[in-house]
Amino acid sequence: MAHSLGLLTVVILLFTVYMHSTSADEIVCQPFKSIPFFSTPCTKPKWAQQGITVAGTTGKQGSSNIQLIGPSGIFIDPYDNLFIADEGNDRIQKFSPGSKGVGLTIAGGNGGGSALNQLKEPRAVYVDSAGTLFITDRGNLRVQKWFTGSAQGITIASGRGYTAHWFQGLSGNRKQINEIYSSESIMGRGRIMKYPLGGDDSPSYATLLGSVTRNPGGIVVDECNSVYVADPFGGNILKFSSGNSTGEQIASGLITPNDVALDTYGNLYIVERDTNRVQRLNVHDGTREVIVGNKEGAEGSDSEHLNKPWSIAFDSENNLYVSDKENHRVQKFSFHEGDLLC
């Protein structure tokens, strides 16, 4: 009995020490799935090399509900709805699963302009977990917030106090709905900003997270609020961790990287605009490979080629979507096989 009590005391003491050493303040945020320690050999993931046009008409720009003009930023929500910044038509188009290429205008579409029900050259789009829409309204030097079903937007960030203040990429932490992140440039100097979502566009309410040498591209935010940004002119992907304003270079030697996405294991997917392809960076072993588009960088309008790809997104089945800007379409490359952890 005494032996049992002694053992119980030791167990209680060890548990107490463990709980003390892993207090809430010391828990490290983990934004991605961990690779199993005892994992079996796996197969690298592969995507179809022939894309399927899911929005727009190849090589034919237009303003009908089956056409696009120079689509730029794209976003896919948890329900696999595809949102497209239809830049040339000054509108945001929504394509639901099963829409068969017929889009619905959910913001703008009233001609290019600066009224609250208008957009001008929208560049990026993001939808939070509440279904609220956020748009970089580049031609109007502002970021707009549109509630679901609203006929007009609210300005939450404005660059009208500066010369050549352009809003580029837009993203957020899907677990939070109280802030939005943007990549911006002022007179050619880039920066990453965080804005609250109270509707006030006063600069005093914004937080500067870090700087990029020149005009930044698209961004993505993980669940620990680290920001990944494409640096087209530097040929890099930079990571700004929470509380660290110095960007960490996590990919280099790229050719005009224009947008970046993450999978559940933290691997990076990068659009190289001027080489008309998408690369995948395995963050665990540092290897990089072209997964869709032409490996030699050639442009084209058939199902295997792209022409100035702009933005990327994944649906719930790991299918890859690419906004193919100069072909006025969005292409879907189906996920074929393999494991994302490889």
TrEMBL record:
It holds the Pfam family NHL. The keyword Repeat applies. Transmembrane segments: none annotated. The keyword Repeat applies. InterPro entries: 6-blade_b-propeller_TolB-like, NHL_repeat, TRIM-NHL_E3_ligases. GO terms for molecular function: zinc ion binding. PROSITE patterns: NHL. It comes from the Eukaryota. Residues 1-24 form the signal peptide. Keywords: Repeat, Signal. NHL repeats lie at residues 293-336. Coiled coil: none annotated. This is NHL repeat-containing protein. It comes from Didymodactylos carnosus.
